[in-house]
Amino acid sequence: MASEGLPPLLSRVLDPLSRYHDHRVEGIEHVPVLGPALLVIHHSLATYDGLLLAMAVWHQRGRMVAGLAHDRLFEVPGFARLAERLDVRRASPEAGRELLAQGHVVMVAPGGMWEALRPSTERYQVRWDNRKGFVRLALEAQVPLVLAACPRADDLFDVESHPLTEWVYDTFRLPLPMVKGRRGWPIPRPVSLVHHLSAPLHPPPYDAEREASQVDELHERAVATMRNLLGRR
To answer: Mean pLDDT of all residues in the chain?
Structure first.
């Protein structure tokens, strides 16, 4: 299906990728057709699986997903212009609150680049231990979280743990993964990709005196839900 409503260049990339991976979504009905929500994804090294999910949400739910992205991406030539068209903002609590107040479905990847750089020995694992900003945002804005996992996105590449990868990330916050894909090249394998979406997690009514414990409890629920979704391989 052509991706009407998406920038033509993005459509020309995503449509073939969707066919290459026979991409589909289970639980798409959990994305609301009206009103704000946080769409929380597990960050793979490939990254484009999140874009395939956003395209599916557009086709099947009629919602153009907004997003929060790492500052480094805005240094890539042409990205800022594309981000403006797609309602992608530099990641910050203020940007998230603004997008939700406007009624958007907002995609976030709490693990960020650090989760994406996991070696293959950590396939299907969640690196959200100290990443709680997304649940605090949901709690303050009183919006549901819909979690989305694409477990086999971790099978597109073999990722090697390497000191150079860690040094470049720690020093410059840039990715330098050591990867092998199809036939040993850094080309994604033709793996069938399925996104599994959770039923909405609704935050409790906000209580300023219990904010810290509310954030911890909601974070624990979100991590447990994502681990369950990643087990559906």
So the answer is: 92
